[in-house]
Predict the 3D structure of the following.
Amino acid sequence: MLIKLTGGKVYDPANGVDGEVRDIFIENGRIVSPEPNAKVDQEYALHGRVIMAGGIDPHSHIGGGKMTIARMILPEDHIGNEVARTELTRAGVGHAVPSTMTTGYRYAEMGYTAAFEPAMLPANARQAHMEMADTSIIDKGAFVMLGSDDFFLRQLAGKADFSAIKDYIAWTMHAAQAIAVKVVNPGGISAFKFNQRKLDLNEKHTYYGVTPRDIILTLARGLTELGVVHPLHIHGCNLGVPGGYETTLETIRGSEGLPIHLTHIQFHSYGTEGDLKFSSAAAPIAEAVNANKNVSCDVGQVMFGQTCTASGDSMRQFVNTRSADPKKWVVMDIECDAGCGVVPFKYRDKSFVNALQWAIGLELFLLVNDPWRLFLTTDHPNGGPFTWYPHLIRLLMDKNFRRDMMQKINQDALKYSTLGSLDREYTLYEIAIMTRAGPARSLGLVDRGHLGVGAWADITVYDDNPDREAMFTTPELLFKNGELIVRNGKIVKVVNGGTHVARPSYDRGGIEKSLKRYFEDYHTVRMDNFRLSDDEIINGGRGSLIIQPTRARAA
Amino acid sequence: MESQKSSNSANHYENVACPFCGILCDDLEIGPSGDGLKVLKNGCAKSVAGFERPLAEPNPQVDGKDVSLDEAIATAARLIRESRLPSFGGLGTDVDGVRAIMALAEKGGGIVDHALSDAQYRNFRVLQSSGWVMTTLTEARNRADLFIIAGSDVHKLHPRFFERIVCNEASMFSDNPPKRTVVFLGEGLNESAVKGQERIGEVVTLPVKTERIGEVLDAMRALNKGATIPGNDIGGLPRAAVDDLLARCKAASYGVVVWAPPSLGFPSAELTVQAISEFVKDINLTSRFAGLALGGNEGAVSAGAVCGWQSGFPLRVSFASGKPDYDSERYAISRLLFAKETDLLLWLASFSPDLTPPDTDIPTILLGTPSIKPARTPKVYIPVGTPGLDHTGVMVRVDNVVSLPLRKLRQSKLPSAASVLEKIEAAL
Ligand SMILES: [Zn+2]
């Protein structure tokens, strides 16, 4: 069946299309260029509408045990946000940590067609994928966490052959069905288990004797040489620490030109000026990002209200438990592999610190020049739920609205930020880069995030409403793989999304020889059972695999 | 599934995960024996009873009379359709089984609850009011130098826990790991698994009535904060013993308090779990410590997790209004049955024949293992297979972090609970 989307204004940055009026044709789920007189079976007249590829969230905690702990710990946050079952959609709850199905519906209703879970512990990968399988409609993928796991740290401490380290990284990606690798507080999650309370970039882990810098460089270099498209996804040392921006700058300098992605950089851009010894260091961070083309980042914008922070960074989260609101929290040490911390949090607009966090995030958005290297995230749910995206987009596109919002927050905070002096307004083209084309390119999604011929027809159609929040809250149409899923912000069809994975080549026999023994000696799970099979993802049609290419492996 | 290869001969399996207790040991070796299976290596009383159960394939029944599966399904669907408020209980199943029950409960407008929820709620209430610091099996196995077993006869619930987690020889962090101290805090706990073991240094027995364990932990928490506590008796223990235990905790490089909520079967036992959790939180300000909750047999952990991610709430959720409505007291199926607030019970028990439905005169649809013997003849009985024996599956382990794939080990005509439930849902 040939479908024609007629006369919309197309924003497709991957193909350099900036608001041109174009027709788009869909056939068998993909965007096609039909013969001039081909018969159109269905036509949507979209004159004056804005057309973009489906949104892609490159960093959103949607799957894995920590999210279910977060869901279970906060029943009061669900009350009043329950969602009834319909003929089409399943019941659930919303707000800070929505239930899985509801998460999928909300993303789709907002025009998004993919979201990536950035902190999948290898030991918890099976559950993370089960939760994502129950996240309706959207495609998903996950970054597997390395860098505090005993096997990698002992490889590093024992100066293992670099090719064996690469094999282990690749093995873990395959075993956990991941598309990328994340490091969280490099080595710090492990160090905390040895009662070390902080680990700076150049500080030695008490047991393994390695530093976060060693860990980052090894993983970044390993991924580059394995040909994995998404660079090492780094949640750096010292999250949330005033003065932590210096560590962030040092991390950029220390990357030695290797591609790196710094995630929720807002939480790593804090200075120590002022009476409260807390200030914005967004300017030097943005300057460093602008100057270093090997660096990409996402913001992790803070939004006001109740949320729940959930992170693999058990070391930092244990400290954050002091600010838990409501006063309850979970910290876990996990399988000599990783950890997690779930801490409910309420960001208040009248709080100096929270208001400044909000301002720092916006400053970063407005000071980093290249939207191809900066992605729009709230680090859902850490900075706030992903459902805030339309509001955030308006803050970036509409300086008068931004000024109005600035009036409502703690005014002292603004004194320690340059936000008031920034006039930049994002264009639709830049928003399309930050929310589709950029993440797709960064993650190596070859036929998503753009509207060129051959791409899968993940397409969002918006009314060109000057109120950008309203516009991005309720798209008129959403197509997923060419099927109409959402009309006027309401789900009209439910499908199961696929799972993006990347599979760098490696010597499976070699690495499994050491791993099999290692699992038998120390673990409580056998290697064969640790590894997720393709069948588990597919699970009789509940899911499917989308294997994205990697570049050639070097050495 | 990739790991489904058999070795040596047909029907000979290695690295088999055992679904018959929440620990999900996955190092079992299972081979054929006559018409059935035999646990060749790493068995325990529970796994032997489960895996070696002879295969029986009875017919589905309505009112005690054999019928076709289709007829049983049609009758079950009719009963649910006609029910004012159905309840979906037992939930002895794997992840896909719970997924199917959730979908059915939503469509049927009913209530979901697991047979062991009373025990699980001793933990959930603490999670929802104050939280905790927890660890997992591999972490404890490699790292802990002090284990405190709090009021739980772990052996009864998890026969291999001590063998695999406490008495293991190897450790990631040392070729010659330090000997461990094991403290039994409680009464009449089985200490046989640690006595005389190479890896165990001291075994300390502190006889405390189970109901008073919370007092001991509260006192230790207060003492750790520098408070003074008068008297020479704390929770029935000599004060010196409590001082000594606190000193051991402070000196430990990684202490683990182990409890199994099903063992804490007394009123307000959640306060004991809370006392443990708050003590562990506090001592973490200076040294590392963690809790490790066991129990969670009969798929209880999988049920809590799937209900948690799909509905946002742990079990005891009602879908009567279409929306998830959560009340941990009101939606306990035992209470609903007693108060006759529910008019239909669907009971699911696919692991153990002992997980029989409550004795009730409310019409019951039973999806159970073939050898299950309910007190009364259910309205509908559909025999179902056991995940990990008759069909593949996945379960979430007792520490709520690791899940394991379950394999199909024998040819049987028994359907999975999930497939039966999906058909009932389709027929609604
Ligand atoms: Zn994150």
Notes: Residues 499 and 545 of chain A are 5 Å apart (CA to CA). Chain A is about 35% helix and 20% strand. Chain A touches chain B through 67 residues (CB under 8 Å). The mean pLDDT of chain A is 97.
